[in-house]
Design a protein that fits this description.
- The protein is mainly α and 163 residues long.
- It has a single domain, classed as N-utilizing Substance Protein B Homolog, Chain A, CATH 1.10.940.
- 63% of the residues lie in helices and 0% in strands.
- It has 7 helices and no strands.
- Helix 1 runs antiparallel to helix 2, helix 1 packs across helix 3 and helix 1 crosses helix 5.
- The longest helix is centred in the first third of the chain and has 19 residues.
- The C terminus is likely disordered.
């Protein structure tokens, strides 16, 4: 399995844990990353992804609601909602350097593993509608300097390359 996919899955599991068990998101991510033992650059990718999703959650939720109007957020499956949050942040953050097709494919693949039978089609449909309406989604300001929930994105060590 590719390293960035492992990082995305760790973020998804941490977001789910934070939603269901009300654990601090930073602690949940730390636990998932400790299990994975990812290279520093990939761990930095996961931390930036988690911090971005949390910092921009309200704007991301608005985009989800606009492009899935028949599914209120509070009635949407937690897994689907968090997969969409991760993908939308990744699509909107130029520093993530993830092509749109890759972000959507990764979201659909996570939906196949963690969601219901209808999750992959639902996730693909919402993200497709979003990109049709807004080819380069914007979430507004950059991440706050202190991150969110104890998750300050850390820069990858010099010379490190995320796979």
């Amino acid at each position: 399995m590719k390293l960035r996919r492992k990082a995305r899955m760790a973020v998804l599991q941490a977001l789910y844990e934070a939603d269901v068990a009300d654990h601090p998101p930073g602690d949940a991510l730390d636990s998932r990353l400790a299990e994975q033992q990812l290279p520093p650059a990939v761990e930095a990718f996961a931390r930036r992804l988690m911090a971005g999703v949390l910092a921009h959650r309200h704007r991301i939720n608005t985009l989800i609601a606009q492009h899935a109007p028949e599914w209120p957020l509070d009635q949407m499956a937690l897994v689907d909602r968090n997969i969409l949050r991760i993908a939308i942040f990744e699509l909107s953050d130029a520093e993530m350097d993830t092509p749109s097709k890759v972000a959507i494919n990764e979201a659909v693949e996570m939906a196949k593993v963690f969601g219901s039978d209808s999750s992959p089609r639902f996730v693909n449909g919402v993200l497709g509608a979003l990109l049709t309406a807004t080819p380069q989604p914007s979430l507004g300001d950059d991440l706050p300097p202190e991150g969110y929930g104890g998750l300050t994105p850390v820069a990858a060590p010099a010379g490190a390359v995320a796979a």
